[in-house]
Amino acid sequence: MVVHGYKGVTFQNWARTYGCCPEMYYQPRSVEEVREVLALARQQNKRVKVVGGGHSPSDIACTDGFMIHMGKMNRVLQVDTEKKQVTVEAGILLADLHPQLDKHGLALSNMGAVSDVTAAGVLGSATHNTGIKHGIMATQVVAMTLLAADGTLLECSESNNAEVFQAARVHLGCLGVILTVTLQCVPRFHLQETSFPSTLREVLDNLDSHLNKSEYFRFLWFPHTENVSIIYQDHTTKPPMSSASWFWDYAVGFYLLEFLLWISTFLPGLVQWINHFFFWLLFSRRREHSQLSHKVFTYECRFKQHVQDWAIPREKTKEALLALKATLEANPKMVAHFPVEVRFTQGDDILLSPCFQRDSCYMNIIMYRPYGKDVPRLDYWLAYETIMKRVGGRPHWAKAHNCTRKDFEKMYPGFSKFCAIREKLDPSGMFLNAYLEKVFY
Hints:
Mean pLDDT: 94
Structural class: alpha+beta
Number of domains: 2
Strand content: 15-25%
Number of strands: 21
Largest sheet: 8 strands, antiparallel
C-alpha cells in the first residue's frame, strides 16, 4: 500500500489569520495509510500535524513538515441505540454527524457554536459551550483509539489505558493521531431559545439566579455600554418555531455591521456608537425560537475575526468583567467590538481541560476583520490577558494567546503528568510544531 501525498499545498485557517506550506500534504483513507505516513516521517525525521476543519483561530495545526488532513476518514462506524453511544472516525464533521444521529433519535447533549469542525478537533482543543451541568465537549467521550508515533494502536477508555485517556480527551494534537471516537449521546431533543435585553449590573448582581433558571445560559455584553443580551436555551416540547423577520434582521444587520466596522478602521471612535446602535437594532427586543438542539446550538460565523477565550474560576466572573469594563473606560482610545460572550461550564478531570478541577466561566472577546482587513487590537488583547491571568484564567487551546510553559505549569495541576504521557508516546517530538513548542518548552 502506498499513500499519496501532495506538494505545494497551502493551508490557511478559517479566519485566515494563520497559514503554512507543509512539505507534504496527505489525505489518508485508512488506519494503514496513516501508519504509512508516520513510518515515512520516522524514516525522514519529519514532523507531523493533523488538521480537521481548520477552524481554530490560532496556529495550533500549522507545520512545515507533513500535514495529515483527516477529511476522508469521516464515517459513522457504529450506533448503539441502547447505550445511546456513537463511534465515528476522527475526521467526521459535526455538521455531517448531526443528521446521522437524527435518524437514530439521538443528539449530542451539548456542543460549541460551529459544526464545520471534526470530532477529534473539537475534543483536542477543549471546545465548549455553556451550562453549569455540562462539561466541555470532551467530557462526552467514552472511548477513543489513537495511533502513537511508533505506529502502536492504543484503545483508550476509563478502563483501558486510563492515564492516556485522561490526557487524550484534550490532546492538542501532540499525543498521536486520533482515529476513532466514541461519544455518549442523549435522546434527540428540541431547544427553545429566548433572548431579552438587560444590563451588565443586573446580570452580575443576579448571576446565580440566571444560572439556575436556564440549562444553557449565556449572555453577551456590549463593550463601551451597559447593555447585555441574556440568552436562555432550554428543552422544549414545542414544535419548531422561527421568525423569518428575526433571521432577516440578523442577515441584513450583520452585512451593515461589517460595512460600519470597515469605516471604523479609519475612524476608531465610531466603534462605541456602533456597539450602541447594534444593540438597539438587533438585541433590544425579546425574541424566541425553537428547533432541533444542534440547530440552536450552532450559528453562522458571518465574517473573519480575531478571538480570545479564557476560562476563569466561576466565582471570578463579576470581578473580571468589571475590571475589563473599567480598563476600557480608563483608556478611551482602546476600542472593543461586541460582543464579549460569557458562558459557564462544569469542572472535569481531564488533564489539560481549562475546566480541570473547577467550575468555570468562559469570557470570549472578538475583534472582527471587516472585508478581511486587520484591526488594531493588541492593546485590548494585552489588557484582557492581564486581567485573565490575575483572576486565575486558562486560555482556550484553539485560540491565540501569549502563554508559555511557565504559565501552564502554574495554571494546570496535571501539567507535568500530561508532559510525561506525551514524552512517552512521542519521545522524538514528531507531533510538535511552533505553537506546541511554546507550550512544552
